[in-house]
């Protein structure tokens, strides 16, 4: 009967391998950051278009607008030519 | 035709696959996971609590895997799995329909899925876990 548990064990080994493989891909997935209530919040990377004089901003579903940062650093503001915030 | 006992083994394997993948991924990206829990509009708890939660959740998932692997403990693992999927489903529903804003889904169960997709995956997982429970009742001993 214990042989019946060979398949779940194989599933676990397979999933472990798959986790590490896809983790490598996940690391390449870029994210941007905004500041909400003085805390960093990761958002999917926003294509702000051409670099310009304006701050690239994201508009949340509650209507609030926040500047977008490349990394978790206040000096890493993303710039754009667009004046319209990007909806999330 | 697949016997009920084999169906039970297949269903347990699917749960093991899901929890191993989710648990290890959350551990690999634990810092991102912690940051996104911090940003969650549904978890107004202190940073220490979030830090502990970011370790506790993936460890709980991997514990469910190990419990599911042994014939003496798989029922306990099944209960834990059902509990975890109910938590995921409630959390995804809360984020989608009750939260003041929708944070990045990278803090969820599977970071590459949107919140709606995470909701469907957790609902699917819950269905599988309940089905496993049903098969467990009909199969006397594995």
UniProtKB/TrEMBL annotation, chain A:
Stretch forming the signal peptide: 1-23
Taxonomy, superkingdom: Bacteria
Alphabetized UniProt keyword annotations: Signal
The protein's name in its UniProt record: Uncharacterized protein
Source organism of this protein record: Mesonia algae
UniProtKB/TrEMBL annotation, chain B:
GO terms for biological process, alphabetical: methylamine metabolic process
Gene Ontology, cellular component aspect: membrane
Membrane topology: Multi-pass membrane protein
Localisation per UniProt entry: Membrane
Keywords, alphabetical: Membrane, Transmembrane, Transmembrane helix
Main location: membrane
Parts of the chain that traverse the membrane: 7-29, 49-70, 77-99, 119-136
InterPro entries in the cross-refs: Methylamine_util_MauE
Keyword Nucleus: no
Domain Methylamine utilisation protein MauE: 8-134
Protein name in UniProt: Methylamine utilisation protein MauE domain-containing protein
């Amino acid at each position: 009967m214990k042989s019946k548990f060979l398949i779940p064990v194989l599933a676990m080994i397979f999933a472990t391998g798959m986790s590490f493989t896809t983790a490598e891909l996940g690391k390449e997935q870029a994210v941007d950051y905004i500041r909400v209530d003085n805390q960093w919040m990761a958002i999917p990377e926003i294509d702000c278009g051409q670099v310009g004089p304006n701050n690239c901003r994201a508009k949340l579903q509650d209507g609030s607008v926040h500047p977008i940062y490349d990394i978790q650093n206040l000096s890493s503001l993303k710039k754009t030519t667009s004046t319209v915030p990007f909806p999330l | 035709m697949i016997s009920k006992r084999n169906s039970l083994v297949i269903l347990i394997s699917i749960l093991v696959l899901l929890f191993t993948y989710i648990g290890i991924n959350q551990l690999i990206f634990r810092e991102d996971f912690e940051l996104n829990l911090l940003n969650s509009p549904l978890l107004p708890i202190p940073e220490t609590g979030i830090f502990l939660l970011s370790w506790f959740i993936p460890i709980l998932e991997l514990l469910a895997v190990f419990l599911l692997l042994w014939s003496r403990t798989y029922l306990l693992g099944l209960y834990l799995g059902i509990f975890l999927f109910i938590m995921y489903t409630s959390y995804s529903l809360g984020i989608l329909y009750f939260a003041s804003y929708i944070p990045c889904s990278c803090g969820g169960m599977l970071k590459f899925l949107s919140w709606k997709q995470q909701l469907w995956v957790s609902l699917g997982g819950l269905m599988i876990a309940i089905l496993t429970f049903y098969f467990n009742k009909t199969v006397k001993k594995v």
